[in-house]
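Reviewers of the previous submission asked for a worked example of the structure-prediction workflow described in the proposal, so we include one complete record here. The input consisted solely of the amino acid sequence. No template or homolog information was supplied to the procedure at any stage.
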Amino acid sequence: MDDFIADTIAGLGYLGIALLMALENVFPPFPSEAIMGASALAIQQDKLEFWPVFVSGTIGSVAGNYVWYWIGHKLGYERLRPFIDRFGRWLTLDWEDVESLAAFFRQYGQWAVLFVRALPFMRTMISLPAGLTHMSVWRFVIFTTIGVAIWNLMLIFGMQWLSRTFDQTDDLVSWIIIATGALAIGSYLFRLATWTPRARR
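From that input alone, the workflow returned the following structure tokens.
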């Protein structure tokens, strides 16, 4: 199983990794933990190189995050609400969630963009209030790059450590990667099936 996962991600190449990481930050059910985990496994097996994986994954993450920054920046509060009302179900996001994110951003300021990137929650959607408040695009890109670089390093080094530590345990790392991906997709499908706007609740 380890070989299959490493061969699959290696077959996608560095451009494929960048595209997957961009998608992970645009649309919910693509977990970065699984993408970077599989890439780390390929690095461990000498099928990919560390620096190209790290750089391509980071560029992809920044590009995906910029999409939500651009949406917030261009639409603004008035035009964003109809967009969220129309597509919020597929994002499992409603207007009250946007307001909560904006309040969090106002409370902690623009540094929230940097720190939240290195956390497993709110990593992508913090881009929306950054755009809504018209944060400087260069500051947004710099803070986002630093934050996602830290996150990607943690994922790569963490999975490499697991691979080295449990190299005698058959396919343990592969099952962790598969379980992470399945949990993310299953969680999204469950939220999609049960989602109702907060106002209705």
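The first helix runs from residue 2 to 26. We consider this example representative of the routine output the project will generate in years two and three.
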